[in-house]
Amino acid sequence: MHRNNDGRQFEPKIVGFFCNWCSYRAADLAGTARIHYAPNVRIVRVMCSGRVDPSFVLKAFALGADGVLMAGCHPGECHYIEQNFKTMRRFKMLQYTLGHLGIEPERLRLVWASAAEGQQLANAIDEMVEQVRAAGPLLWPGNWKENEGRLESIERLAQEHAEAVEVQA
Ligand code: FES
How far is the CA of 48 from the centre of ligand 1 (A)? Predict the structure, then answer.
């Protein structure tokens, strides 16, 4: 078991890019339905999983995430027609690239969760947290705690790219 310097169990930091129309609402539903899931995911809301530029994922790792969870609407249910097919292609590309950078595959996950699937999303989060916990800290960029404001930095990046990768309705 991986432990922090203070002897406590290692708690992975996972950045979740969640689609506003489905997985973000599923997370909300899980909260209101008192479905418990690991509190390790810091959620960044995006308007579609297709809005998640691969650079967001790389930046999240570079800024200290131990894992990145991309979550969107099921194939065929994207509000922007077929943007989540683009997500699938990007996910494959990222898996390939991260593999070559020596990053374990379990540190990046793509899940589909409709707004009604709070339990499924919670299960996926719990499973991922356990897998990343077992993999241990990524230790790419130094210590997350000593570098406050990283989530804000990732959110800013998503905002900056809002026009560049605007989804087509
Ligand atoms: S709107 Fe949810 S994945 Fe596109």
Answer: 4
